[in-house]
Write a structure and sequence with these properties.
Length: 755
């Protein structure tokens, strides 16, 4: 039987961190004092056993550490200077790899760092404070472990960092990375070099499997991994460490290492893995869970593993209390707990009628999936139906891909051709995992949509608890186990209809793709003209699935910003796609390349002034001008180069405006003074930069805003919404109502909102 006392310690520590991080300070303090007092009083009066004191002490200890860390960050001189927007001189050490992210005005470099000295406002401080560095794309990219000095503007930051650092000058390197960081970087480079000549996806997946280096992975493939429940393979997880350190121990035994020296070898392997994968909190968390898994594989593994899990949770939260609110921590702990506590009895039930290897292969991913399902649904809004099967199929390839990929990288440091030879089977194994992810994601009902509100999640949690209770009985009987499996297969292969969706008489759908545009014009029973594809493939693909669109005779990309073209792979996935057209301004280049990668060809130019009929859709391109004139150079050129379309479907006139800004809108007002429409797709997600007179003059009855929930741009602007309302338009927003579908019935036009 598992030792639940240690698990109670971990649960108490987790509760203590959550109290401080999620509740106001005085409320958290009151709850901690109340819980501690109740435990002490209960033990004193013999109402509860003394065993309650352990979890209570863990709760109080972690709550105290979390409070102390929050206080240190909030009272740091950096935080005070950031509130003033001060320009200071900093000495800092880069504490993570630099990531490139898309910013509002171009790419940005982002990295974690630790500040040791700051000078500003006539004073200087020596300190140790965590910050986030956010630099422009042309700023030098310092490697992990570099110490440097730079001038920077400080900006207030949320979370567990004291400030956001925006460098304003060239940095001066004070100290190069220590030798262990150089060695770790060399191993990472060698792993990539060992698979450089392989298939594009395989050569990106192998580094992801070995050390969590997934920076170059195709976003569409990453989405398939999410759909099939294989995302844990793309990040540093306990599985990585278990495989790497396990292989080191096997090699050590083969070489004659025994006893305490074997434990020392395991410790060296763990430290080496953490350094190579980067000693960040998420990596240390993964290493801790992997160590727990190794303990669970030994003698009396279930009990010892449970004790190790509780101690690991307590130790991690004492060092980094903020892990308690990170999804990765929750998923790691729950998956490990599921494997330790649920998998053994489920395996024993299956062993009544299946071989042991089959029982173990099924019970482990099933237990992990059931334990993690509520958290995964809260994050993605979906429940994967293919996750267990996909993990079963991928599992045989994970070990060779990980172990041989690392071995190839290490041997490649000695002799590059040997590394390439050893890593070849790793690339083949990665190709198999990729095939499983892609085929699994193509299953008609690979995942079902599930709400992220409290009621749906509570219902799902209750279902998971019920599954835990009845699973041993169902799995122990061949008839019930095969019946459940058959039912699941039928549900996966036959896509269930969504009642009442798509609505009768629909002409336009504005897909809820987050902060971006994804528009669908109905061209036939299962045909549609798609205008833009949102920032990610999954939401666009799911929206088209819900609309039962199987053919896209025309795809128009208004411009190449990521929030309009990032989801193109979701449009082409499993559908017939005909002509692809776009604006003539091929900027930004990254957006153009992403489209070419997704569809295998470059888009054609949308012809200005052209009118065409595509099924039930009549389209006219009314912007941009071929000569590129008529706009303000101070505005965004890609936005003002957006393709603007006037569409008509079933007698409903629709204006699709891309992201055109005020000068382009004014030019359209001059060129099309008599333009009147029934439906307006509001430009640029409802930005405040609009020609309000022109928008009001269109006479639209419906104004649709495609905008992301909780976006930090302030979209849609209140002044814009007020002007549209004053002009007689009814405004609908995807952040509030989900998918918006315009319907035409008996000469009237209205909106059906899925959310």
């Amino acid at each position: 039987m598992p030792d639940l006392r240690a698990l109670a310690l971990g649960a108490g520590a987790w509760a203590g961190a959550l109290l401080v991080l999620l509740l106001p300070g005085w409320v958290a303090l009151a709850v901690v004092v109340l819980v501690a007092s109740a435990a002490v009083l209960g033990v004193a009066r013999r109402l509860v056993t003394p065993g309650w004191l352990g979890p209570t002490a863990a709760l109080v200890a972690v709550a105290g550490v979390a409070t102390l860390q929050q206080t240190l960050v909030a009272t740091s001189p950096l935080a005070a200077l950031a509130e003033e927007g001060a320009v200071v001189s900093l000495r800092l050490e880069i504490a993570s790899d630099v990531r490139v992210v898309a910013g509002r005005f171009g790419d940005l470099q982002v990295a974690q760092a630790s500040v040791s000295r700051v000078e500003g406002r006539g004073s200087a401080w020596s300190l140790d404070a965590p910050v986030v560095v956010m630099a422009d794309a042309d700023w030098p990219r310092p490697p992990l472990g570099t110490s440097l000095e730079t001038a920077a503007r400080l900006v207030p930051a949320d979370g567990d960092v004291a400030a956001l650092v925006r460098p304003t000058g060239e940095p001066r390197v004070v100290a190069e990375p220590d030798v262990w960081w150089d060695a770790a970087a060399a191993v990472r480079r060698s792993v990539r070099a060992a698979v450089e000549g392989r298939d594009a996806d395989a050569r990106e997946l192998v580094p992801a499997l070995v050390v969590g280096d997934d920076g170059g992975l195709d976003p569409a493939l990453a989405d398939d991994f999410r759909t099939t429940g294989l995302t844990h393979l793309l990040a540093v997880s306990g599985t990585n460490l278990t495989l790497v350190v396990g292989s080191v121990l096997v090699l050590g035994r083969w070489l004659g290492v025994r006893g305490r020296w074997l434990h020392a070898l395991a410790a060296v392997g763990i430290v080496g893995f953490v350094m190579t994968a980067r000693a960040e909190p998420s990596v240390v968390r993964a290493a801790a869970m992997g160590t727990v898994a190794l303990v669970g594989m030994g003698a009396n593994g279930r009990s010892r593993g449970a004790r190790a899990l509780g101690v690991a949770v307590l130790g991690l939260l004492l060092v980094w209390p903020r892990l308690a609110v990170t999804p990765g921590f929750a998923l790691s702990v729950l998956a490990t707990a599921g494997i330790l506590l649920l998998a053994p009895p489920w395996r024993d039930a299956l062993m009544r009628w299946t071989p042991r290897w089959v029982a173990e292969a099924v019970s482990v991913p099933l237990a992990a999936q059931v334990a993690c399902t509520p958290v995964v649904a809260a994050l993605s809004g979906q429940v994967s139906l293919v996750a267990v099967g996909a993990n079963l199929l991928a599992a045989p390839a994970v070990a060779p891909a990980t172990v041989l990929g690392l071995a190839g990288g290490l041997l490649g440091l000695l002799w590059a051709p040997l590394g390439v030879l050893v890593a070849a089977p790793a690339a083949w194994s990665a190709a198999w995992i990729i095939a499983v992810a892609r085929r699994g994601a193509d299953v008609p009902t690979a995942a079902v949509d599930w709400g992220t509100g409290p009621v749906p999640l509570a219902a799902l949690t209750a279902l998971c608890v019920a599954a835990v209770l009845v699973a041993p009985r169902l799995l122990g009987r061949p008839a019930s186990a095969m019946a459940c499996t058959g039912l699941l297969v039928v549900v996966m292969l036959v896509r269930p209809p969504i009642p009442g969706w798509p609505p009768r008489g629909w002409v336009l759908a504005v897909c809820d793709v987050g902060q971006g545009d994804g528009l669908v014009l109905r061209a036939g029973d299962h045909d549609a003209v798609v205008v833009d594809a949102g920032p990610e493939p999954a939401p666009m693909d799911a929206c088209l699935d819900r609309l039962e669109v199987t053919s896209v005779p025309l795809l128009v990309l208004t411009h190449f910003h990521a929030d309009h073209v990032g989801g193109v792979a979701g449009v082409v996935d499993g559908r017939r796609v005909g002509t692809i057209e776009a604006t003539g301004l091929l900027d930004p280049a990254a957006g153009v390349l992403s489209v070419e990668d997704a569809v295998g060809r470059g888009p054609a130019l949308s012809a200005y002034g052209a009118t065409r009929v595509v099924g039930d859709v009549t389209l006219q391109v009314v912007w941009p001008r071929p000569d590129g004139s008529g706009t303000d150079p101070s505005e965004s050129a890609p936005n003002n180069a957006s393709v603007v379309l006037v569409a008509e479907v079933s007698g409903v006139r629709i204006l699709l405006t891309g992201d055109v800004e005020p000068s382009a809108q004014a030019a359209l007002a001059r060129e099309l003074p008599e333009l009147r429409v029934d439906v307006l797709k509001v430009p640029h997600h409802g930005s405040r930069h609009q020609d309000l007179d022109w928008l009001a003059s269109l006479g639209a009855r419906l104004a649709l805003v495609s905008v992301g929930e909780g976006n930090d741009y302030g979209h849609p602007a209140p002044d814009l919404l007020a002007a549209l309302t004053a002009a007689g338009a009814r405004t609908w927003r995807t952040d509030l109502s989900g998918d918006l579908v315009v319907v035409e019935r008996e000469g009237g036009v209205g909106v059906v909102a899925r959310g």
